[in-house]
């Protein structure tokens, strides 16, 4: 690609490097950056006494910016199941749009490799495992110069293969159990139900089964057992007090139902005092979450990061949670 100031008469098929305001008779003509120079524009430039014009001229091994970013965008989607759409290229940019509410997943190392091929292309995205809404832009692919060399473009496309996808939220049978003691206010319990319903509605869950009990092992264990019998997929428990030990009321009630503690605590603030567990029966594995007090608030916290993964059918390992510490101060 040749870039620079050349004689206007020689600028045919060049790409205009900056916007211009020209005059034709009494009319004002605005010509945008990136416009392909044709014979009509050359004549108009000369009429405006512009004898030199800054532009880019492509050679046979160059791919024009809009075509280049479109080719990259087509390849960067994770096949037809990606739940993503390409917005038509404009001014050397292609945006990738989500078709659904869901969870954005990709390997951040792959994105690093894409951006490492050349500084002539920049791919910017939301963070991995971000909650996204339908029609939200999840990534933007931008060509820096007006054209990309064909061989370089091939390398970018190879590195970008099937990078992004958005996972849809799955329907789950969710049970909410709240324990109470003599100090528990009824309005706090009611507010928690409203907040939890709104939180789950973001994940496509339109109804939950609510239960209340005393904050003691026997009472809470009984409610958990009921939820198991009622085919719950996910049991959320708000204790009257925060979970502070694996021998506290909520974890011991889980164990009473042959449940297993997977993790107590996570490196996300707010959300530290979360309990993750599971209960296996003859038919399936039920996910169990002892909810931290911060989840009574609608503000984003560590529970959201866990719930998004659960509702998209993703497993949650200790390593997954440990990585959440990077950016986990919300």
CATH architecture classification name of the largest domain: 3-Layer(aba) Sandwich
Total number of domains: 3
What sort of overall outline do the alpha carbons produce when their principal axes are compared? elongated
Query: What's the CATH topology name of the largest domain?
Result: Molybdenum Cofactor Biosythetic Enzyme, Chain A
- Identify the CATH class of the largest domain: Alpha Beta
- Rounded to the nearest angstrom, the radius of gyration is 28 Å
Span from first to last CA?
46 Å
Quantity of strands, as a count: 20
Mean pLDDT: 95
Order of helices and strands: EEEEHEEHEEEHEEEEHEEHEHEHEEEHH
- The biggest beta sheet, please? 6 strands, mixed
Question: Structural class of the secondary structure composition?
Answer: alpha+beta
Question: Number of helix segments?
Answer: 9
- Low-pLDDT stretches are none
Helix content: 25-40%
Physical arrangement of strands within the biggest beta sheet: 16-15-17-20-19-18
* Share of β-strand residues: 25-35%
Relevant CATH superfamily of the largest domain: MoaB/Mog-like domain
């Amino acid at each position: 690609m040749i870039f620079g100031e050349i004689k206007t008469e020689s600028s045919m098929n060049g790409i205009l490097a900056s916007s211009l305001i020209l005059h034709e008779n009494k009319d004002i003509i605005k010509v945008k950056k990136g416009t392909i120079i044709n014979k009509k524009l050359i004549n108009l430039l000369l009429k405006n006494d512009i004898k030199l014009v800054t532009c880019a001229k492509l050679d046979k091994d160059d791919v024009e910016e809009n075509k280049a970013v479109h080719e990259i965008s087509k390849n960067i989607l994770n096949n037809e199941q990606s739940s993503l759409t390409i917005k038509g290229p404009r001014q050397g940019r292609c945006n990738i749009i989500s078709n659904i509410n869901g969870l954005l997943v990709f390997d951040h190392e792959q994105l690093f490799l894409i951006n490492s091929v050349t500084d002539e292309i920049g791919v910017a995205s939301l963070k991995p495992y971000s909650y996204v809404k339908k029609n939200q832009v999840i990534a933007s692919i931008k060509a820096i110069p007006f054209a990309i060399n064909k061989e370089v473009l091939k390398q970018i496309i190879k590195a970008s293969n099937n990078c992004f996808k958005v996972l849809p939220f799955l329907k789950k049978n969710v049970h909410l159990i709240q324990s109470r003691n003599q100090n528990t206010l009824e309005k706090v319990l009611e507010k928690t139900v409203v907040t939890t319903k709104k939180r789950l509605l973001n994940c496509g869950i339109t109804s939950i089964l609510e239960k209340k009990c005393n904050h003691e092992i026997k009472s809470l264990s009984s409610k958990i057992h009921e939820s198991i019998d009622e085919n719950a997929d996910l049991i959320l428990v708000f204790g009257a007090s925060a979970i502070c030990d694996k021998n506290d009321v909520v974890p011991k009630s889980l164990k009473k139902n042959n449940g297993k503690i997977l993790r107590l605590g996570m490196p996300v603030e707010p959300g530290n005092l979360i309990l993750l567990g599971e209960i296996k029966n003859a038919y399936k594995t039920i996910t169990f979450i002892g909810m931290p007090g911060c989840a009574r608030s609608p503000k984003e916290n560590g529970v959201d990061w866990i719930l998004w993964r659960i509702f998209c059918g993703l497993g949650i390992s200790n390593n997954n949670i440990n990585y959440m510490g990077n950016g986990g101060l919300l």
